[in-house]
Inverse folding.
């Protein structure tokens, strides 16, 4: 079985949540488990599987974007004889991967009264049976029937004990726990924990079997034979895994991989220069599954799908030449307290060809909480990033990219003049249309004492420094600014307001002014703060707050009036007006080339709305799409390609939208699917590449018009119904299209097979 086959599988007994329109930008660096299959290594990473064919170097992947149903893989095993794999997830669910499809298993057995983690700790496949280790014991899973058999709940004195790992060896299940190696035959008393035998007391973490059975404590590995546990003659520092192959035992100890034959005689020792989760041997060669570099061989070559350094992402910045910069920070407690990410990731960079990670962040003792990172359009090799923390090192950093070394070098640090660690913390960065750089700043004082003002930092290229000016907002907080027609729109998440800053299109701050809108200007009265803002093609500001959306019409002009008023979007349903997204926290709003709105709701997924917000075109959630979570922290649209990027703390996915480069004239008009065969497809036919406003007539071969419409925003979906509301007959249909003023025309054909 190859991953190319897996990637094209139709899902079995499960809702299809992926399609060819989706792709992932997940990290595949952290390899959790590996198995060999006839010269290929199948590896499980945090958010997907990938296959590495050793002879050709081919690498392919399988994730939630093209077949799997979850992220956060915690356990995996694969049987090369039956070609069946089983994936276990953090939330306790499973995916069964077979040559016939991927089946999602949600209902794992839960012990009565158990309230602990549902995480799948370990999976071991023997034949058509899998032993699944969880926080309350072990369960047997039938891979043919795709259902659970017996479960043993490790309950003693009212306390559940976890099975760290377990295997089926012979007719016995062997489980390593924190109190010992426990065993039981596969018989009628298997579910009764009091009938289980403790073969050897101790704290044991790993176990595996094939020709022999081997288990391990953090410092010692044992070979088990007929009731006798014999230690392997090697003391380890911290055993991360034990793997048994046909002819050897492989022990992963931090960065070192030890190989023994099946009677315990020492063989080779390989050093991988970094920590590994697991290891295996293929053709006599050792391959390590590393935490940060994917699969690595003994000559330190690495093999993995390209992707960011880690999955954790916060904001995305799209640039020319397909370049992408991803920030990795975050905040809690009303967007005040910096998230303490122990991995200190900094930012990720895609140079248009591959993902780059700066060595500057590796091993750095500075605490990085990078809320934003952008390339300088005036000097594209320079990147500025904000470090929002409440300790030493907060401020703005500039780094320079070296294409030959594929690395970034530190250039300069700007402390913004804060007097204490909590003062003048930069949040977001934005360029105006003159390439002037501005940053939003939280908790700004006057330069001598700390304060609670929201401030703007203006970058002066002549002096290579930032000039800071406080606004009239006393919220103390700020989000990333949005630039539009000389104005910087700054959401303030801790106070029911939004700041609009007029920078006069210069880095000088002497003549700058700011405006503040709050509930008196129409923001929700129960709003805890504004979180996002975007200006659409009509010039209206869409403001996302803690309690819904408000729209300020003709924003650049209205904001300067005496009493600007922002209004909710009211949708009429059954004769009653209902406010769109009332009382919901809006994390992000983005506008595509057709003026449609993408809206991220905290815990509610992403909505794709018509230009006026009156119609929901799509609603993507973690449950019905490849979104890794229902809380998407950022959305960016590449208006040239129509691609939509969704960032989250659990990874990045990309959706190929239907709207790109919408103008008053037609682009490349495409109809899909075409032909439309009812037995294969029962949805709507999409026509894309349209003008911004398109008049559409659809006629049969006799010239009879069966459907007419006006499409806005660059694409249209036809439900294949005629003007009477019934489905059209099988045949060829002609799509006749003109733009708004009739200066441009286009035609297309659709074949319908009922």
């Amino acid at each position: 079985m190859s991953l190319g086959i897996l990637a094209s599988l139709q899902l079995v007994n499960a809702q299809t949540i992926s399609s060819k329109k989706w792709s992932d930008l997940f990290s595949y660096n952290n390899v959790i488990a590996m198995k060999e299959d006839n010269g290929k290594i199948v590896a499980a990473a945090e958010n997907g599987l990938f296959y590495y064919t050793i002879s050709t170097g081919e690498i392919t992947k399988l994730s939630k974007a093209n077949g799997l149903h979850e992220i956060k893989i915690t356990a995996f095993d694969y049987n090369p004889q039956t070609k069946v794999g089983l994936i276990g997830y953090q939330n306790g669910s499973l995916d069964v991967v077979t040559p016939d499809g991927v089946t999602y298993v949600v209902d794992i057995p839960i012990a009565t009264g158990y309230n602990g983690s549902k995480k799948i700790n370990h999976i071991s496949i023997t034949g058509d049976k899998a032993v699944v280790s969880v926080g309350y014991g072990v369960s047997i899973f039938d891979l043919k029937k795709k259902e659970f058999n017996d479960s043993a709940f490790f309950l003693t004195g009212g306390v559940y004990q976890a099975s760290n790992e377990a295997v089926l060896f012979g007719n016995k299940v062997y489980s390593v726990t924190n109190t010992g190696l426990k065993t039981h035959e596969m018989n009628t008393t298997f579910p009764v924990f009091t009938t289980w035998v403790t073969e050897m007391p101790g704290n044991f973490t790993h176990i595996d079997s094939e020709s022999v059975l081997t288990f391990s404590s953090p410092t010692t590995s044992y070979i088990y034979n007929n009731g006798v546990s014999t230690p392997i003659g090697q003391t380890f520092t911290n055993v991360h895994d034990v793997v048994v192959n046909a002819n050897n035992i492989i022990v992963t100890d931090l960065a070192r991989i030890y190989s023994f034959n099946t009677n315990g005689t020492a063989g080779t020792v390989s050093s991988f220069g970094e920590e590994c989760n697991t290891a295996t041997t293929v053709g006599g060669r050792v391959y390590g599954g590393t935490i940060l570099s994917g699969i690595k061989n003994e000559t330190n070559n690495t093999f993995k799908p390209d992707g960011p350094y880690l999955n954790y992402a916060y904001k995305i910045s799209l640039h020319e030449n397909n370049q992408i910069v991803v920030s990795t920070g975050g905040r809690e407690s009303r967007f005040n307290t910096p998230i303490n990410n122990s991995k200190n990731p900094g930012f990720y960079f895609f140079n248009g060809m591959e993902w780059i990670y700066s060595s500057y962040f590796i091993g750095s003792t500075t605490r990085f909480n990078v809320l934003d990172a952008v390339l300088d359009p005036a000097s594209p090799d320079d990147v500025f990033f904000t470090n929002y923390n409440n300790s030493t090192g907060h401020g703005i950093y500039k780094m320079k990219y070296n294409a030959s070394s594929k690395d970034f070098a530190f250039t300069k640090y700007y402390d913004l003049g804060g007097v204490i660690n909590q003062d003048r913390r930069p949040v977001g960065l934005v360029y105006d249309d003159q390439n002037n750089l501005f940053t939003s700043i939280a908790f700004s004082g006057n330069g001598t004492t700390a304060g609670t003002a929201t401030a703007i930092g203006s970058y002066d290229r002549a002096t290579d420094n930032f000039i800071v000016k406080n606004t009239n907002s006393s919220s103390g907080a700020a989000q990333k600014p949005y630039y539009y027609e000389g104005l910087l729109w700054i959401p303030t998440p801790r106070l029911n307001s939004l700041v609009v800053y007029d920078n006069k299109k210069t880095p000088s701050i002497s003549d700058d002014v700011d405006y503040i809108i709050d509930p008196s200007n129409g923001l929700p009265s129960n709003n805890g703060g504004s979180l996002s803002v975007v200006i659409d093609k009509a010039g209206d500001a869409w403001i996302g707050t803690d309690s819904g959306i408000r729209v300020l019409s003709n924003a650049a002009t209205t904001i300067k009036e005496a009493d600007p008023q922002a209004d909710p979007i009211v949708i009429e349903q059954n004769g009653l007006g209902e406010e769109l997204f009332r009382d919901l926290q809006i994390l992000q709003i983005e506008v595509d080339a057709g003026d449609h709105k993408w809206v991220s709701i905290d815990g509610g997924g992403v909505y794709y709305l018509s230009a006026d917000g009156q119609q929901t075109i799509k609603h993507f959630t973690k449950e019905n799409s490849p979104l890794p979570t229902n809380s998407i922290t950022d959305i960016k649209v590449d208006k040239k390609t129509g691609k939509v990027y969704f960032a989250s703390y659990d990874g990045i996915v990309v959706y190929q939208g239907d709207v790109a480069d919408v103008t008053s004239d037609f682009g490349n008009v495409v109809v899909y699917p075409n032909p439309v065969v009812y037995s294969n497809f029962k949805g709507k036919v999409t026509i894309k590449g349209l003008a911004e406003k398109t008049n559409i007539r659809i006629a049969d071969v006799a010239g009879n018009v069966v459907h007419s419409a006006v499409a806005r925003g660059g694409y249209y979906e036809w439900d294949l119904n005629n003007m009477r509301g019934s489905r059209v007959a099988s045949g060829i249909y002609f799509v006749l299209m003109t733009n708004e003023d009739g200066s441009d025309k286009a035609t297309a054909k659709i074949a319908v097979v009922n």
Q: What stands out?
A: The chain is about 0% helix and 50% strand. Residues 499 and 516 are 5 Å apart (CA to CA).
